[in-house]
Amino acid sequence: PATPLARMKSPTIESVESISDMSVYPNPSAQDVVHIKYNRNSDQPNERIELEVFDISGKRIITRSLSLIDGELVYDINTTRSMSAGIYIVRLVDGKMTKTEKLIIR
User: Fold this and answer.
1) Is 61 exposed, middle or buried (0-12, 13-18, 19+ CB in 10 A)?
2) pTM of structure
């Protein structure tokens, strides 16, 4: 069976333009906290964004439903609780649009 990573759809051109800015930092990280920052112009000031983090095997280890306030989301992940050294995929889902970034924890 396909893993969640294998089933992820690639963002369309429209979704890449709509998700204007996502950063995951520091990356690579040896720190206890990784910051996720996301900005998007929006007609609706308060919206929900889904944040998911997958390990390299495709297992979802973090799922959060977060608020986009005035087009911005800032979220900190405490890596000491749920993430050992390795490669992870951070995915933001904003309606039909998706953005993914690779995260390396040392």
Assistant:
1) middle
2) 0.76
